[in-house]
Design a protein that fits this description.
Layout: H1 5-28, H2 39-53, H3 70-108, E1 114-116, E2 123-125, H4 126-141, H5 144-158, H6 168-209, H7 215-256
Antiparallel strand pairs: 1-2
Helix pairs in contact: 1-2, 1-3, 3-4, 3-6, 3-7, 5-7, 6-7
Length: 263
């Protein structure tokens, strides 16, 4: 059995180009890109996803380009950008709940209670860490990671491997999704914001009506206790928000990898 150079290049490219896009997604998407997952595990996960996805898509088209040529390096750069943009957009979904936890913690007076987030390696309030763990567990229970892999496999059909990659307008739209993240965070934290604002307003009126009562000795612990009660009451709605927001974000990722599409 003899293989020509073109056949070897085509066989190598059929796995290498998609593998680069998959690796970029694994390195940037939440859960997969966590700091507690070492680089070797991420690489093995990318290889496993590539082995499963690529043979299942017989219609995938890859250019017959030398990997180390100028055109090959350009394709590598485009595949990294596509995978990184997809992972970054999903990261915004998780960051929305982290930001919502920060808003609630500041309203409760627990902004000083912080801990190191093992997923991102940064210091966040404890409430944010709680919301992040909650969202991660719900996202996995809803098979969100499997839907992400499905969207990734569809991207090789809607946006095949080529030297063109994403249009320039798509990068602007990806950055614009930051406003969506802040709007989603306010939506999740809105019940707690309104409730705790009424609590603080009540203690403000009480301190004016009875100056001998120290608002700091009563209001501070009451704000913390009522904050935890509000979190307990509104936690089921956070799961509902996650379902809707995750569906919106996955649809925006699908639009991102459409031919000439926009997020």
């Amino acid at each position: 059995m003899e293989l020509s150079t073109a056949e070897i290049t085509g066989l190598l490219g059929s796995y290498m180009w998609p593998f680069i896009r998959i690796t970029a997604l694994v390195m940037t998407a939440p859960i997969f890109s966590s700091n507690f997952v070492n680089a070797r595990s991420k690489l093995l996960l990318a290889i496993a996803i590539s082995i499963v996805i690529i043979p299942a898509m017989p219609n995938i088209n890859v250019p017959a380009v030398e990997p180390l040529s100028g055109a090959g390096l350009l394709i590598v750069a485009h595949q990294i950008l596509i995978g990184a943009c997809m992972g970054f957009m999903l990261q915004l979904l998780f960051n929305a709940f982290t930001l919502a936890g920060q808003i609630i913690a500041m309203q409760m007076g627990l902004g000083f209670a912080s801990m190191v987030d093992p997923q991102n390696g940064v210091t966040v309030p404890v409430i944010s860490q709680f919301y992040l763990i909650f969202v991660t567990l719900v996202f996995i229970s809803l098979d969100g990671h499997l839907i992400l892999i499905q969207v990734l496999s569809e991207s090789f059909v809607t946006l095949p491997v080529s030297s063109s990659g994403l249009p320039y307008s798509s990068f602007r739209d990806v950055v614009a999704q930051a406003s969506w993240m802040y709007a989603a965070a306010v939506l999740v934290a809105l019940p707690a914001i309104g409730s705790l604002m009424m609590v603080n307003l009540s203690f403000g009126i009480l301190s004016r009506a009875a100056p001998q009562i120290s608002p700091f000795s009563i209001g501070f612990p009451m704000s913390i206790i009522l904050g935890f009660v509000i979190i307990f009451v509104t936690l089921p709605s956070a799961s509902h928000h996650l379902t809707n927001l995750a569906d919106q974000m996955l649809q925006m990722i699908r639009l991102l990898v459409q031919p000439g599409g926009t997020a």
